[in-house]
Amino acid sequence: MKKIAFFDTKPYDLSFFEKFGKGYKIKYFDNKLNADTAALAKGYDGVIAFVNDDISAAAVDKLYEGGVRVIALRSAGYNNVDFRAAYEKISVVRVPAYSPYAVAEHAAALLLTLNRKIHKAYNRTRDFDFRLSGLVGFDLRGKTIGVIGTGKIGRCFVDICKGFSMKVLAYDPYPAKDMDVEYTDLDTLLSESHIISLHCPLTESTRHMINADTIKTMRTGALVINTSRGQLIDSEQLLAALKSGKLGGAGLDVYEEESEFFFEDFSQTIVKDDILSLLVSLPNVILTSHQGFLTGEALENIAKTTIENLNEFFSDKKLTNEICYQCKTGDIGPNCEKRKATGRCF
Ligand code: NAI
To answer: Which residues form the pocket of ligand 1, taking CB atoms under 6 Å from any ligand atom?
Structure first.
């Protein structure tokens, strides 16, 4: 039976992986995977990793030396892996889609909570404070929402927004041909939208796409929702815009420096990240801890696909969900002669 090291294990992972992973000897580690902890996987055939594991070149080398030949990401995002280092050593597979609805619905939850100040009302009424002052929101109906990225999650979010009778503007360098939405350029989207929601991946070109310069072009009082990746936003400049009143609020499920904090309990600690502390303290910021994906349906799909990916790898089959630096999206790219011929990147 193949041995798999599972990193950054959380209680909600266990039941689903125990159900689908019976064909493997899985050791569950609490540790996040990085260059220091990669040695734990010595003697294992593969690892299962998550979004805040740091799979750098040094981590890849340690895994390879220890005998690991496959990294199965139990996530869609993969910006935390050094693919160039892994190429021709360790195959990397992921779960491209598990429930786009879960993330899109969470983005909607952040928007509704932020706009209607449910977080404040909840705390007040628990204290038998039934005043309404400070809780004024606005009708979503008729407002313009800018959706950046109309892939699997973005398109679900567009549908939700249409349900609220909002005017939807979309920006995507690869517009979907089968979608009934008004595409526009990024500048127009930023300047016309009352709400901006990010659904694009983190790449060199999208890193800090929300920054002081782009914020300047937005409507005063605009809301920003981010359920994609923290580094899409320059958080220091976001904080400045929230403090000055240029932006009306932010609903964040991700944060630039989240890997140090998210999924862990820091309630008994003085958190030393001042930007995070200030963001959390603002009344017009809602921060959740990368939980957009967290529904039972999504967790079941994640476990099922991760195990199917491992089954393909260990039975020398074509790897449906393999990614490498040559064809980053998992689609077969122009340099993928090898993959076209064998079904594997190397
Ligand atoms: P997808 O790959 O289906 O869609 C991404 C879309 O972004 C594509 O249409 C692509 O053309 C577009 N895009 C690429 N570069 C762009 C740019 N510069 N500007 C605007 N659009 C651009 O990905 P999916 O499944 O919709 O996921 C989107 C993101 O959501 C992921 O990259 C991941 O970071 C994040 N995510 C967050 C989760 C959470 O729990 N909060 C869970 C799953 C994904």
So the answer is: 76-77, 97, 100, 103, 148-154, 171-174, 199-202, 205-206, 227-229, 253-254, 290, 292-293
pLDDT tens over the chain, length 346 residues = 999 999 999 999 999 999 999 999 999 999 999 999 999 999 999 999 998 899 999 999 999 999 999 999 999 888 899 999 999 999 999 999 999 999 999 999 999 999 999 999 999 999 999 999 999 999 999 999 999 999 999 999 999 999 999 999 999 999 999 999 999 999 999 999 999 999 999 998 999 999 999 999 999 999 999 999 999 999 999 999 999 999 999 999 999 999 889 988 999 999 999 999 999 999 999 999 999 999 999 999 999 999 999 999 999 999 999 998 877 555 556 667 788 888 998 8
- Closest ligand 1 atom to residue 205 Cα is 18
Q: Where are the beta strands (DSSP E) in 1-93?
A: 3-6, 25-28, 46-49, 70-73, 91-93
If you classify domain 3-98+296-342 with CATH, what class do you get? alpha beta
Q: Which architecture does CATH list for 100-287?
A: 3-Layer(aba) Sandwich (3.40)
Long-range contacts of 131-140 (CB under 8 A, 24+ apart): 134/283, 138/194, 140/111, 140/115, 140/164, 140/165, 140/166
Q: In this structure, what token pair is assigned to residue 316?
A: 């020398």
Q: Whole-prediction pTM value?
A: 0.90
Looking at the chain, the domain(s) classified CATH 3.40.50.720 span 3-98+296-342, 100-287
d(CA 251, CA 217): 19
